[in-house]
Structures are given as C-alpha cells and as structure tokens.
Design brief:
Elements lengths: L1 H4 L8 E4 L2 E4 L3 E4 L13 E8 L4 E6 L2 E6 L6 E3 L5 H4 L4 E8 L9 H9 L1 E9 L1 H9 L10 H8 L1
Parallel strand pairs: 8-9
Antiparallel strand pairs: 1-2, 3-4, 3-7, 4-5, 5-6
C-alpha cells in the first residue's frame, strides 16, 4: 500500500528502522501508549519530518506534533491498511472489508460489525456472500443486537 499511495520520490528523505520503511507523508499508527509524548495505542498520524542526521522523525496527530528518536520508531507501524481489532474506537472515510471463506476463523459477527461501523461514508465489502452469511450467523464474543442483517439487506 505504501508503494502505491506514497511511492519514493527523488530528493524526498526516507529511512528504514525495525524492518519498516518511513517516508514523508506516510500514514502511521502508534502501537503502544506513550504517556510522556501524549500519544496512545491506535492514534493515527502523518510523518511530517525525517532527519536521520539529527536522529528524529516528526509525526503530526491532528494538530499536535510529536518528535520520535530513531530508536523509538518501533512504536509506529504503517497505517495504510489496519486490522479490525486496531480500528476499534476510530472512524474512517472509507473501509474495505475482505470477506473470504478461506479465513473462516475470522468470520465472526462482531468482527464484521466492527469493520462495517468504522466506515464514515464508504464501505466496500469484497469477497463471497457465503462468507458474509457465515460471519452473520457466527457469534464471536457473546450476543449483540446490532441490526447487521438489516443493514446488509438495505445496502443491496
């Protein structure tokens, strides 16, 4: 996703740490609470500055700028595509939800509900009707009254 949405460009800095490549403009997610910096697990920001010589990366979260030392970049992961679990508590303009029978262990009603309700304006469910049916019929973490069946019927 990074290669397609934020490809390398001549003269634009990038650096690699902890098996991840960071570029200016990358969407990243904080994956551990950092109380000192005021950023928390699940916060999403944009890389706004990279300075390998100074040993810093700047990430902007909403209006806040957070400076990371290079040895603390393991707190960040690319956020071009994230899991339903990591999306809980957030909203996104668009969500693409793969529904494939081969991943039957993940086909749970609560997981599909979480993914579908993260979409603010666009939801694209890609895959197999049978997978969606199985997910809707499989309870995950207890009963929920979500009206998921109604929402799917209304959308078709």
């Amino acid at each position: 996703m990074q290669q397609a949405l934020n490809p390398p460009a001549p003269g634009r800095p990038e650096l690699s740490r902890f098996g991840r490549l960071f570029r200016l403009g990358d969407k990243v997610m904080q994956v551990r609470n950092n109380y000192d910096a005021g950023v928390f697990n699940g916060d999403i920001g944009l890389v706004a500055g990279l300075d390998e010589d100074a040993g810093t990366v700047v990430v902007v979260y909403d209006e806040r700028r957070v400076e990371y030392a290079l040895d603390s970049l393991d707190q960040l992961e690319p956020a071009y595509a994230i899991t339903c679990h990591k999306s809980q508590g957030s909203e996104f303009a668009g969500v693409v939800m793969p529904l494939i029978g081969g991943h039957y262990m993940m086909l749970r009603r609560n997981l599909v509900y979480t993914a579908f309700t993260r979409a603010r304006s666009v939801l694209c469910a890609v895959g197999q009707w049978q997978a969606l049916r199985r997910a809707a019929q499989t309870e995950g973490a207890g009963a929920r009254w979500t009206r998921l069946g109604e929402r799917v019927r209304d959308a078709t």
